[in-house]
Amino acid sequence: MDSSHLDYSRKIRAAAVQISPVLFSRDRTTEKVLDAIAKAAKEGAQLVVFPETFIPYYPYFSFVQPPVLMGKEHMRLYEEAVTVPSAVTDAVSNAARSHAIVVVLGVNERDRGSLYNSQLIFDADGTLLLKRRKITPTYHERMVWGQGDGAGLKVLDTAVGKLGALACWEHYNPLARFSLMAQHEQIHCAQFPGSLVGQIFADQIDVTIRHHALEAGCFVVNSTGWLSPEQVAQITTDEKLQRVLSGGCNTAIIGPEGNHLCPPITEGEGMAIADLDFSLITKRKRMMDSVGHYSRPDLLQLQLNSQAQRSLIDERLPETDTTSNPQYAPLPEISYGLFQSLT
């Protein structure tokens, strides 16, 4: 779709889900996802966003256990992780198609011997449009997940408009955010784990997502997870450590002018729902379009390597052979100073 002909007159309804997993169970957590999709659709939502690595659960154990002691829990996460494609992705795809709803879902993805923090985006017809991996796991997460690459930094044409997504502290990488902004995302889907660090994390999430909405001139639909006190006790019996597995929840929907479009959810399970009026994007960008009239590509440009990284490249195929080996296919140019390159 030509970005100069985007429809800014439409209105859609979005839902951000704050929800707790069924700890240690991929299948039962998937059932909660399917139930929430149906509930969001019943409320008229055309887009539903779930928390970071929600299936089977965020690796909270890595936040409270030293690496030398977390092998058992790490292995259990391997056993319950999601492969793509699988029965889990088939079930979510069927639900998206059945309810004609776009689904953004965080999963622990298992790819043979590695785990990744992955975001799956299903269109309203059930098509899995994108599987993207968090480009840099944060601090304790580096003992759990591998790194993603630039292949997932894409804005997608979906049934609800041009949609992009990042997970958690990827929002502290301004160039990652700019790569989506320059592709003219209209809706940005953000995911955080929730139930971490306390109120300071909830406050930081609020600042982060509102700033992105203002800077990008887009809507932000943000989902965080939640743990009950009983679930916290399942993760650790140390009362001092239990205190750091609380708070940090801020499920919210933000407009292009940085305002909340519905009350945020900061505790317990629930669903934030709001109508997104795309004319507000134009209203914001008329004043400040950070990838248009307010940009200076003659001074500042972003170079994005959107090539999927591989451990093995078959050099028997010449680099000019773009038909039999898409790895060497030329990459499209993105406007407003965002360029593609191969390394």
From TrEMBL:
Gene Ontology MF: a single term: nitrilase activity
Source species, domain of life: Bacteria
Short name of any one Pfam family annotated for the protein: CN_hydrolase
CN hydrolase domain location: 12-278
Gene3D superfamilies from the UniProt entry: Carbon-nitrogen hydrolase (3.60.110.10)
InterPro entries: C-N_Hydrolase, C-N_Hydrolase_sf, Nitrilase, Nitrilase/CN_hydratase_CS, Nitrilases_CHs
Stated family: Belongs to the carbon-nitrogen hydrolase superfamily. Nitrilase family.
PANTHER family per the UniProt record, alphabetical: CN HYDROLASE DOMAIN-CONTAINING PROTEIN, NITRILASE
Descriptive protein name: Nit6803 family nitrilase
